[in-house]
Amino acid sequence: MTIPFQFDESLHVYKVDGMVVPGVTRVIDHAGLTSFENVREDILERRSKLGTIVHACTHFFDEGDLDWMTVAEEAKGYVDSWANLVTELGLKWQRIEFQCVGEIDGMKVGMRPDREGFIFGRLSIVDLKISRQAEPWHAIQTALYALGLPHPMLTTPMARFMARDRYIAKLDEHGKKAKLIPYRARNDADVGRSALAISHWKLSHGKKIEPLELEVAA
Fold it and tell me: End-to-end CA distance of the chain, in Å?
């Protein structure tokens, strides 16, 4: 079952029945699990733009209609990195950047996980990253996706979580095959649920959804 929602692309804000719903990145920010406060604004903007380009190109690649001649030079290595991984493992996706609003313990959350499909025989969620290293909060990001992303047979958050493996794919700027980094800790689900509860509590007490850079670049 999918929840009808509205999405403001310019503000990156989800709404359900006119009420603001936090997105996964905002949940992580509200809970204090990550911060970009000490990163220069020009670097944030540049990485965010690069991340957007890379995500668009990898999306087209996975759908089989990427024109390699249109790939920006600064993005080419990252796209090659992803293409090498997908080709070597023969990956096929059930969902590509599937945007939705999920519900976890009665709390709604907006999300757009990059990929869902089978890896090594297991239903898996994969988020693409151009960052130079994996960050601890990536585990919670993917946990929230696994908890909230609709499943055709499973209705409870923990059942959905347990049915899915979780990875980030760390893309290499020089085109080396992307590295799959797995997250397997069960308590990632507990942290994700707690973070979502904090975010909803803040919203109910007047906290506004602020613009947050690096939405897709992290």
Answer: 30
pLDDT at 40: 46
Beta strands in 64-114 (DSSP E): 93-96, 100-104, 107-111
Interhelix angle for 73-89 vs 41-63, to 10°?
40
Q: Which domain holds residue 40?
A: 6-204
Q: Are the beta carbons of 217 and 131 closer than 8 angstroms?
A: yes
Distance between CA atoms of residues 24 and 186, nearest Å: 18
| pTM (predicted TM-score) | 0.92
Number of domains composing the chain? 1
The answer to whether the beta carbons of residues 148 and 103 sit under 8 Å apart is yes
- Let me know if residue 215 belongs to a domain: no
CATH of the domain at 145: 3.90.320
Residue found by looking up tokens 């503000």 in the block? 11
Which residue has 């585990």 as its token pair?
139
184 located within any domain: yes
Residue with tokens 């946990």: 143
φ, ψ dihedrals at 132, nearest 5°: -75, -15
- Please tell me the predicted confidence (pLDDT) of residue 37: 55
Tell whether the torsion through CA atoms of 8, 11, 12 and 14 is positive or negative. Answer: negative
96 and 62 Cβ atoms separated by less than 8 Å: yes
Q: Which residues contact 189 (CB under 8 A, 6 or more apart)?
A: 143, 146, 147, 157, 158, 161
